[in-house]
Amino acid sequence: MLPFDFDYYKPATLKEAVDLYQDLDQHGKKPMFFSGGTELITLGRIDLEYTEAVIDIKDISETKVMQVNGDHLLLGSTLTLTKIEEANPFPLLTKTASEVADHTARGKITLGGNICARIFYREAVLPFLLADSQVLLVGPEGKKMVPINEIFHEQLQLKKGEFLVQLVSDTRFIRAPFVSIKRRQQWNMGYPLITIAALKLDHEVRVAISGLCPFPFRSKELEASLNNREIPIAARIDAALATLPKPILDDVEGSAQYRLFVLRNLLLDVWAALNS
Predict the structure, then answer these.
(1) C-alpha dist (Å) from residue 107 to 12, 127, 162
(2) 185: Cβ–Cβ under 8 A, 6 or more apart, which residues?
(3) Would you state the pLDDT for residue 2?
(4) Residue 11: left (phi > 0), alpha (psi -120 to 50), or beta?
(5) HEC states along 168-215?
(6) Nearest to 99 by CA among 215, 189, 206
(7) Mind giving me the DSSP string for 2-71?
């Protein structure tokens, strides 16, 4: 149970959801868009999340889309990770998200909920960063399509009253060779230490990482170092590690030094898998 009460709304259209948010906000209700609810329940119980009005967007048809339209795959933000895994329209996404939490939780966690969450990991965003995907947002200014690599900086930079509707990915990235590896300190139990997702396109390896820093990221500088074929792979990885963003996590799951050790070996594994 949550230690606070809230009003619950379930709009049927994008416009209704946006208008409802504005109205509730004007009345000081601290509204929140809601697609899965796992984070609200988890953080609300420890007083890290609070709202007086929940706007559940799961009934809005545009947020439930899973289809290929020409050369693009459209995935709605309220699709659960389990539903995506079962349909497997984007194998790299399926592999990367398949070990988020446990099977029961993945049946409730939505794509948008994971990407927009406050937790460090948010592994579901990694394939979209690699695929140069577009995000469809809606808010008081209407709909807009934005490249995810322009709007995801440590987190999805949503304006007040905006929410994620869909992610759109070019199918050439979906067909590209890929690898996704998750390392945990405690074998198959507990939070991941590091998750790395990578794909190879036009002879270049792209890499995105979760669990190393307090946010998931893709680094063009890291990729440039890794793909510099003029020097040995060990030297490339040394150069890549020198480009990492800060801070490196140092917690009960693993020290910063240990995380860097794990990442070094993961980068070797990724390079070997995509260049064998």
Answers:
(1) 22, 20, 25
(2) 193, 253, 254
(3) 46
(4) beta
(5) EEEHHHHCCCEEEEEEEEECCEEEEEEEEEEEEECCEEEEEEECCCCC
(6) 189
(7) -SS--EEE--SSHHHHHHHHHHHHHTT--EEEESS-HHHHHHHTTTS---SEEEE-TT-GGGG-EEEETT
What residue type is 263 in one-letter code? L
Could you give the angle at which helices 233-241 and 256-274 cross, rounded to 10 degrees?
Answer: 140
Q: Which of 166, 105, 118, 115 has the alpha carbon at shortest distance from 138?
A: 166
Return the amino acid letter for 199. Answer: L
Residue 207 tokens read as 């890499």
Query: Token pair of 2, please?
Result: 């949550």
pLDDT tens-digit readout, 247-273: 999 988 899 999 999 999 999 999 999
Residues 167 and 135: their CA atoms lie apart, in Å, by 5
Asked if residues 153 and 122 have their Cβ atoms less than 8 Å apart, the reply is no
Fold of 178-274: Enolase-like; domain 1 (3.30.390)
Domain map (residue ranges) of the chain: 7-56, 63-174, 178-274
Look up the CATH architecture of domain 7-56.
2-Layer Sandwich (3.30)
Buried b / exposed e over 90-116, threshold 16 CB at 10 Å, is bebbbbbbbbbbeeeebebbbbbbbbb
Model-level pTM?
0.92
108, two tokens: 């409730």
Q: In one letter, which amino acid is 86?
A: E
CATH topology of domain 63-174: 3.30.465
